[in-house]
């Protein structure tokens, strides 16, 4: 299987981006979330979708370590979560 | 639509072979479980793991009962460096897919292999080449990374069935059949609570030629991949399929998948099973191997380096991890034996310990956060030291399996110990304290059964006293095998003995 070269962060509306990390197990969602938080502009909101429950802990912890604001961690549907972070 | 991008190629090359698992204890959030194929490591590997542990894991190292190396306190942001180093060294990790809510992302866990394969004079088959082929095929194979759940395999050619085939999804053990040497298989074992509940595996009832072993294993994993339950995670382990289908249908489907019929074989469990290769034994080539007990598999980077030095000097730079969280120093020449034993004692790992010290197993509930002090591995150490000091040489050769788990997931195998201790948090005097249920009567092979609870929520002191009472009676009655002692008494009588006759 060819490694994925890039992961896209899509703009859903002005100041709001989404990042789909479903299918990745730890530690990849946390690392990709850190990289994404590097790329979006301060003040913008990043909605990260994951389906690996431990990432509901590791991503908010990483965001707080980087001093960004974790707005919410919300279960959506049977298997997925949205983690909403505002870059500071 | 505006799209930003992040680089992923440096990490996605690892996703099929590396991941971290979740910890929730001792301030560790994630662990790294390194698969060690056949449990075999070189002294250079030991030093490299020691270095990784010093840099990222607090200098702490565990040997697991699936012959893995486990490090804790691993930070996600350090993972790229750790994975790169492991990749250079030729290792991979468990895939830890249990974090996903659904029945998916299961992988083939480290294949448990007799650690004295190829050395043991008593073995029927040297399984090393088969084990290598299984590992080479399954590790990182994208076709086998989305099984309904994890799949556990063991294979042994030894006379002790040291790999516990009864508790694997698929366990192969060597047998002689009509003058031929090959394997029998046990299917659908698992000690965890997922449905249909804890199960010892069932004999498959076929004779497997050594040259067919790999294809048999592959066909069984294929069957699980295609027919395992993907609707419900609690019903996704292989034991559910085995239970739903029954042995006859399983065999039919398996042979259909394999493309041929295998000879039928009336067999049960191995007569002797789940034993450790305790002691010093002569190898096929006249050299010796030494089994070194490690209580709970707990070591340190410092000890890893010391073991590496001993291995370089006396064991051709090799060690082998056993399914009892111990390790073996192979290839020791006759003139080196005394020196090795002395050196092992000097580093605090004497090889001449009691059989109990070799057979005790404790899970890592301290790190997964399921237990409080004393954690299973701590109580294991305390128990061994107490019994050794109380009974001295009288207990040296007593075959006694004490297994400790911090929760019902039973990573510490308490259900198959002569004495099984299951951690339960209890409220005592208004405070939450660690207590243990005392279970007795578990075993494998001819003694196959799950242990039964005889006392609930004992304090650690009460547990140690109860075990001491049982051991004293066992020794007084002249038994050298605790399992035989248990069978000589009924449950009520054992309860009375454990309580010191106060009941």
* pLDDT < 50 runs, ≥5 residues of chain A: none
Major beta-sheet overview of chain B: 6 strands, antiparallel
Low-confidence stretches of chain B: none
In oligomeric terms, what are we looking at?
heterodimer
Shape of chain A: globular
User: At CATH's second level, what is the architecture of one domain in chain B?
Assistant: 2-Layer Sandwich
Distance between the termini of chain B: 77 Å
What is the fourth-level CATH superfamily of chain A? TusA-like domain
The overall pLDDT average of chain A reads 95
Structural features, described:
Chain A is α+β, with helices and mostly antiparallel strands and 88 residues long. Chain A has a single domain (10-86), classed as TusA-like domain (Translation Initiation Factor IF3), CATH 3.30.110. Helices cover 26% and strands 39% of the residues of chain A. Chain A contains 2 helices and 5 strands. Chain A has helices at 28-39, 55-65; strands spanning 6-13, 16-20, 45-50, 69-76, 80-86. Chain A has a 5-stranded mixed sheet with strand order 1-2-3-5-4, with helices on one face. In chain A, helix 1 (28-39) links the parallel strand 2 (16-20) and strand 3 (45-50). In chain A, helix 1 (28-39) runs parallel beside helix 2. The relative contact order of chain A is 0.21. The mean pLDDT of chain A is 95. By secondary structure, chain B is α+β, with helices and mostly antiparallel strands. Chain B has a domain at 358-498: Sulfite Reductase Hemoprotein, domain 1 (2-Layer Sandwich), CATH 3.30.413.10. Helix content of chain B is 31%, strand content 21%. Chain B contains 14 helices and 22 strands. In chain B, the strands form 4 sheets. In chain B, strands 2, 3, 5, 6, 7 and 15 form a 6-stranded antiparallel sheet that branches. The longest helix of chain B is centred in the middle third of the chain and has 21 residues, at 238-258. The mean pLDDT of chain B is 96. Chains A and B meet through strand 1, helix 1 and helix 2 of A and strand 1 and helix 1 of B. Strand 1 (6-13) of chain A pairs antiparallel with strand 1 (3-7) of chain B, so a sheet runs across the interface.
């Amino acid at each position: 299987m060819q490694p994925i070269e890039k992961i896209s962060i899509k703009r859903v509306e002005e100041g709001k981006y989404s990042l789909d990390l479903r299918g990745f197990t730890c530690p990849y969602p946390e690392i990709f979330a850190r990289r994404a938080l590097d790329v979006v502009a301060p003040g913008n909101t990043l909605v990260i979708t994951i389906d690996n429950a431990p990432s509901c802990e590791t991503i908010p912890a990483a965001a707080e370590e980087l001093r960004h604001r974790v707005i919410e961690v919300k279960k959506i549907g049977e298997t997925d979560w949205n983690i909403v972070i505002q870059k500071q | 639509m505006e799209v930003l991008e992040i680089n992923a190629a440096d990490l996605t090359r690892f996703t099929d072979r590396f991941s971290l698992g979740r910890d929730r204890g001792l301030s560790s959030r994630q662990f790294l479980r390194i698969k060690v194929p056949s449990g075999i490591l070189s002294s250079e590997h030991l030093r490299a793991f020691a270095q990784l542990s010093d840099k990222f894991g607090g200098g702490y190292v565990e040997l697991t009962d699936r012959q893995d190396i486990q490090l804790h306190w691993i930070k996600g942001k350090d993972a790229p460096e750790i994975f790169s180093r492991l990749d250079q060294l030729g290792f991979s990790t468990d895939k830890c897919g249990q974090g996903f809510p659904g029945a998916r992302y299961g992988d083939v866990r480290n294949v448990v292999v007799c650690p004295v394969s190829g050395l043991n004079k008593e073995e029927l088959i040297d399984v090393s080449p088969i084990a290598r082929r299984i590992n080479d095929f399954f590790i990182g194979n994208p076709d086998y990374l989305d099984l309904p759940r994890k799949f556990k395999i063991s294979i042994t050619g030894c006379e002790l069935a040291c790999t516990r085939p009864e508790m694997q999804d698929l366990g192969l053990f060597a047998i002689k059949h009509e003058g031929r040497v090959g394997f029998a298989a046990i299917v659908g074992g698992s000690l965890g609570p997922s449905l249909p509940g804890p199960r010892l595996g069932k004999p498959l009832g076929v004779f497997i030629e050594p040259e067919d072993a790999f294809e048999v294993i592959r066909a069984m994993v294929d069957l699980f991949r295609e027919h395992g339950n993907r609707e419900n995670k609690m019903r996704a382990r292989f034991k559910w399929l085995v239970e739903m289908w029954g042995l006859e249908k399983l065999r039919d489907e398996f042979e259909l998948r394999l493309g041929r019929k295998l000879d039928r074989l009336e067999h049960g469990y191995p007569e002797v099973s789940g034993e450790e290769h305790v002691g010093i034994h002569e190898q096929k080539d006249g050299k010796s191997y030494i089994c070194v007990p490690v209580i709970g598999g707990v070591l340190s980077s410092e000890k890893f380096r010391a073991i590496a030095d001993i291995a370089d000097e006396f064991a051709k730079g090799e060690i082998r991890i056993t399914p009892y969280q111990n390790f073996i120093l192979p290839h020791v020449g006759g003139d080196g034996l005394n020196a090795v034993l002395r050196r092992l004692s000097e580093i605090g790992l004497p090889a001449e310990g009691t059989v109990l010290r070799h057979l005790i197993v404790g899970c890592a509930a301290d790190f997964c956060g399921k237990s409080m002090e004393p954690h299973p591995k701590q109580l294991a150490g305390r128990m061994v030291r107490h019994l050794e000091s109380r009974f001295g040489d009288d207990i040296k050769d007593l075959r006694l399996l004490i297994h400790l788990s911090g929760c019902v997931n039973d990573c510490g195998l308490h259900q198959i110990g002569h004495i099984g201790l299951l951690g339960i948090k209890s409220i005592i005097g208004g405070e939450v304290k660690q207590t243990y249920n005392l279970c007795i009567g578990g075993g494998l092979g001819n003694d196959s059964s799950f242990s039964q609870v005889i006392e609930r929520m004992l304090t650690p002191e009460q547990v140690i006293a109860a075990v001491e009472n049982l051991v004293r009676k066992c020794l007084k009655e002249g038994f050298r095998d605790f399992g035989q002692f248990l069978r000589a008494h009924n449950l009520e009588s054992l309860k009375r003995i454990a309580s010191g006759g106060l009941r």
